[in-house]
Specification:
Radius of gyration: 16 Å
Strand content: 35-45%
Shape: elongated
Distance between the termini: 57 Å
Number of helices: 1
Largest sheet: 3 strands, antiparallel
Length: about 60
């Protein structure tokens, strides 16, 4: 009995970011830093091309 696993669904469900240099999919930052109560900074390093870059995620303020 042969089982076929559809990897397209699981690949789409994983969050990823493309490398800013070569567009290789990156799945986990090298480190993350809590900047303040609304921002998180991530450092990314691409294993394919060795490019290093940062992103910042900003969240909306919580309504009181």
């Amino acid at each position: 009995m042969s089982r076929h696993h559809d990897t397209t669904k699981s690949a789409r469900s994983r969050p990823h970011i493309p490398c800013a240099q070569c567009s290789e999919s990156l799945f986990m930052p090298e480190w993350s830093e809590h900047v303040d109560e609304r921002r998180v900074r991530h450092l990314w390093e691409c294993e394919a091309c060795d490019y290093v870059f940062e992103t910042i995620v900003s969240y909306e303020a919580v309504a009181a």
